[in-house]
Specification:
Distance between the termini: 51 Å
Largest sheet: 7 strands, mixed
Shape: globular
Helix content: 10-25%
Structural class: alpha+beta
Radius of gyration: 25 Å
Number of strands: 25
């Protein structure tokens, strides 16, 4: 069959469909840019897909926060995905995560999804990438795709590498960036890759015989690698993140060798657990094992700013911050499972949540190349924290939003980090889209709610009605820097105290209401609401039973308002503008079918998904025709 060549054009080309790429593409498309997402696999999700099955973790670490005090779970697109999975995928099927991401992309009118399509060439002219070539062997198709902005979310940095962008690979020395956690001498070693597995317990014994090529393990060789411990992510149903190897090889070029060795190690570890360890695994049997290595590290681009250990540990404030991190600096021995005398990881908590700047996502070599995910411009030590998937998703959303802004305003990418007006507009849009940003308060002049007076049927002292227009949408302040307090919060000088939400009096019951009023009539075309979804709580799709038991999984979060109505005072009478039932999402954007002229709007809350009172973090209201992305 003859190969068909097709020329395509878009505003933003995103290569790579993991959490960073999906979030980047969705953000760019939702902000109005014609976007193409090329993914070289048949499913989306990267390491979170059914092909790898790693659970998504991020700034909130692996511990619960404090209700109404420390809410470090990411918002934005990754929160939308997590909440959808929690309600729509109570059975915790990995394939339903694939379908969720596919559905989000397919429903977005500005986004064209191209699965099984691999970027193979990049054509550059000076400091501009003009086009990329992508091939889809399954259909004998070859595409030449032109774009204004190219975003590399491939993890391995494939697009940027093909264009000739500078990158690093391996560990920097302590002296290079003054990093105390770096090795004394730099090298080409990286974190290794992992193959996960899933096992199930049956009512009868399930024998297992290892294949002849399986490796052999003993209690001595696994003395630092715990397993068979119910209650966490170390039980038998999920596999082991520490089943890692390949960090002393080239994790790109040697990926097939790494896959084969990991399979041999997986079979050997299971053989030891089943047939030789003290774990009662007689009735356990393998149900699935991965064949696609979950890769942690490969190329990292060199951008306008190199994020370093001190940026994280000293909580450097960046004017151009587009995302927030907080996972510990989590390094692993490059030898992986062969490093039998070393613990499988060394986790150094960061004292506070930290900024990730746009300048670490912009190429120093090309004026229209961006990157998001584990390949951003960061040292090995800083990358060891930013690499986790919820953080990658947040960076992807920030990059996609910045890309759309650049195209709409006809600005130049390298100038953005120092352009305070542009950065302000991008950050305000990210905040409106519920992205967690330190020190960023709603100052959108188009938002009519900021000029309204607020009343409510009742309120508590720690949840005043006026909080819905205070410009903050979570409780995040951490009064100290005790790393034992996980998840961590914001530095004391970068986030104000308070719950930052209206809390109705439980004694008053339902319905409860809150209203915005203006001295004169205003025209409203859009109303946006932000609800409480328990951001202090762990929440992510996981195959680990013990980890999932620590979540509120399989139904909406109990704090979230379920049934509500939006009413407007028209000629002295309250009229219902719209009603919503069975809500479970955090952010709801209501574009009214007909704009209204009113001096007051009211949110009537009829019920929640569990708790006995109403909580609402923010109300925004926009005039007709002025609710589009970015400030004028």
């Amino acid at each position: 069959m003859k190969t068909t060549q097709t020329q395509l054009r878009c505003d933003v080309l995103v290569a790579g469909g993991g959490p960073a790429g999906v979030s980047c593409a969705l953000a760019a498309a939702r902000c109005g840019s014609k976007t193409i997402l090329c993914q070289d696999r048949p499913v989306l999700g990267g390491n979170a897909s059914s092909e790898v099955r790693m659970h998504i973790v991020g700034a909130n670490g692996m511990s619960e926060g404090l209700p109404l005090e420390r809410e470090s779970r990411e918002g934005g697109i990754v929160e939308e995905i997590r909440l959808n999975q929690c309600v729509r995928n109570p059975q915790r099927s990995p394939s339903m995560m694939d379908l969720e991401l596919y559905d989000l992309c397919r429903q977005e009118p500005n986004l064209e999804l191209m699965l099984n399509t691999t970027v193979t060439q990049a054509k550059a002219n000076g400091r501009q990438i003009e086009s990329i070539t992508a091939k889809r062997p399954s259909t004998n198709d070859r595409f030449e795709i032109s774009a204004q902005i190219f975003v590399d979310c491939t993890g391995d940095g494939t697009l940027g590498y093909l264009a000739g962008a500078a990158f690093s690979m391996g560990r920097e020395s302590q002296a290079e960036y003054s990093e105390s956690l770096a090795p004394i001498s730099g090298d080409k070693k990286t974190l290794g890759s992992t193959l996960l597995f899933q096992a199930r317990r049956y009512p009868v014994p399930m024998p297992f015989s290892a294949p002849p090529w399986a490796r052999s393990f003993s209690a001595e060789s696994l003395k630092f690698r715990p397993f068979g411990r119910p209650g966490g992510d170390l039980n038998l149903e999920y596999g082991f993140w520490w089943l890692e190897w390949g960090g002393e090889l080239d994790t790109i070029k040697d990926n097939e060798i790494i896959r084969d060795e990991l399979l041999a190690a997986l079979m050997g570890v299971w053989d030891f657990i089943k047939n030789h360890s003290e774990v009662d695994a007689e009735n356990w049997a393998l149900e699935w094992c991965g064949f696609l290595p979950g890769k942690r590290e490969s190329r990292r681009f060199i951008g306008l700013h190199m994020l370093t250990e001190s940026d994280l540990m000293q909580n450097r404030a960046f004017q151009d911050a587009i995302a927030t991190g907080g996972w510990p600096i989590d390094t692993h021995p490059p030898g992986g499972i062969d490093a039998v005398d070393e613990p499988p990881c060394d986790q150094r908590p960061v004292p506070h949540l930290y900024d990730i700047p746009l300048s670490s996502c912009l190429s120093k070599d090309f004026d229209n190349l961006m990157f998001a995910g584990r390949n951003i411009s960061a040292t090995h030590i800083a990358f060891a924290s930013t690499r986790v998937m919820a953080t990658c998703s947040a960076v992807g959303q920030g990059v996609g939003t910045a890309a759309a802004y650049t195209i709409q305003r006809k600005t130049v990418l390298p100038d953005l980090p120092s352009d305070s007006e542009s950065v302000f507009r991008i950050r305000q849009q990210l905040l409106r889209d519920d992205v967690m940003l330190l020190g960023c308060q709603n100052k959108d002049p188009r938002d009519l709610a900021r000029k309204a007076s607020v009343e409510a049927s009742s309120e508590l002292s720690n949840g005043p009605a006026n909080a819905v227009i205070d410009g903050w949408t979570r409780a995040l302040r951490s009064p100290d820097s005790n790393p034992a307090l996980m998840p961590i919060g914001a530095p004391p000088d970068r986030f104000p105290d308070g719950t930052h939400r209206w809390i109705s009096d439980p004694a008053q019951g339902f319905p409860a209401w809150i209203s915005l009023s203006w001295q004169n009539q205003v025209a409203i075309g859009t109303i946006e609401l932000t609800f409480d979804t328990g951001l202090h709580r762990l929440l992510t799709l996981s195959m680990a039973d013990g980890y999932t038991e620590r979540m509120h999984w399989g139904e909406p979060q109990p704090e979230t308002i379920r049934d509500y109505a939006i009413e407007a005072n028209i000629d002295g009478y309250w009229e219902t503008i719209l009603e919503v039932q069975s809500n479970y999402q955090r952010r709801r954007h209501h574009r009214l079918m007909q704009p209204i002229e009113t001096s007051s709007v009211r949110i009537q809350v009829y019920n929640t998904n569990g708790i006995d009172h109403a909580r609402l973090l923010e109300i925004r209201a926009y005039p007709p025709g002025s609710d589009g992305p970015f400030l004028a």
